[in-house]
Structures are given as C-alpha cells and as structure tokens.
Amino acid sequence: MKDPESAGVSPAEGPSSPDVPSLQRRLAEFAAARDWQRYHTPKNLVSALSVEASELVEIFQWLTPGESARVMADPETAHRVTDEVADVLAYLLQLCEVLGIDPLSALDAKIDRNERRFPAPEKPDGAGR
Questions:
Q1: Distance between CA 102 and CA 52 in Å, rounded?
Q2: Res 1: pLDDT
Q3: Assign residue 103 a region: left if phi > 0, alpha if psi is -120 to 50, beta otherwise?
Q4: What is the mean pLDDT of the chain?
Q5: Residue 10, phi then psi, degrees to nearest 5
Q6: pLDDT of 101-120, one tens digit each?
Q7: Residue 94 in contact with residue 24, Cβ under 8 Å?
Q8: What is the number of alpha carbons within 13 Å of residue 34 lying toward its C-beta?
Q9: Phi and psi (nearest 5°) for 14?
Q10: pLDDT at 123
Q11: What b/e readout covers 65-100, taking b as 16+ CB neighbours within 10 angstroms?
Q12: How far apart are alpha carbons 106 and 110 in whole angstroms?
C-alpha cells in the first residue's frame, strides 16, 4: 500500500488537487499507451477542443438564464456538465503541451493585458465603505 505522501496526499490535509504538469503527464501517458500521439497534432487537438466545447454548449443551448444558473442542481445534468468541462480541459492541456504553452502563465499574462486594456472604473469617494 502506498503511503499518503507518495500518493500526493498529505495526512493532515487529505487529497490534494492535481497540478497542471501532472495532468499533462497523465494525458500524454494515456495517449502513448494507446499509440495516439500521432493524432495529437495542433490541428486535430483544436478540432477536438471545438467539438467538446460545442457539446458543453449543447447542454445549455435552450435553457433560460435562470435554468442555466441552476444546472448543477440536477445530478444527471451536473454529471454531463462536469464530463464536458473535463473533456474541454483535457484537449486544451494537450494542445498547450504540444505547442509548448504554459497555460497558467498564458492566462496570467492575458489578465494583465486585460487589466491595462479595460481599467476598472474609478469609484466615487466613500463608495464601498
């Protein structure tokens, strides 16, 4: 039996969330074990990402804004949403791996650019107190 430390679990904290590099490694190992790497070209991964994102859109397509806000209340729908989010993330992480993009650094840089492009409006004195 593995000890909690080697399983990525701290005895005091319980299970930890996987990090991006470990997920990318697992995805690469999964593909390699099935000899799928040859299909994981940027073009194919972007296409698959688009399909999975469309499958996520399909779940929400005809819902009202209120229904969409409560989508996770139904266990069956919540399971479908969670699976599609996982599929989208899996293809995005594989695309980043193939292209050599650090997704967290890319997002951090994009937020920085957006903060400069779209500054928050100034609040009048005394607002928010």
A1: 21
A2: 38
A3: alpha
A4: 89
A5: -85, 130
A6: 999 999 999 999 999 999 99
A7: yes
A8: 8
A9: 85, -165
A10: 86
A11: eeeeeeeeeeeebeebbeebeebbbbbbbbbbbbee
A12: 6
Q: Fill in the amino acid letter for 79.
A: H
| Residues composing the chain | 129
Amino acid at 22: S
Token representation of residue 123: 């609040």
- Look at residues 8, 36, 12 and name the one whose alpha carbon lies nearest to residue 22: 8
Distance CA 80, CA 74 (A): 10
Residues 70-84, mean pLDDT to the nearest whole number: 98
**19-31 pLDDT, tens digit each:** 999 999 999 999 9
Cα 8 to Cα 25: distance, rounded to the nearest angstrom: 15
- Tell me which residue has tokens 């296409």: 47
**Paired strand residues for 9:** 15
Query: Nearest 5 degrees, angle CA 49-CA 94-CA 109?
Result: 90
Q: Is the pLDDT of residue 4 over 70?
A: no
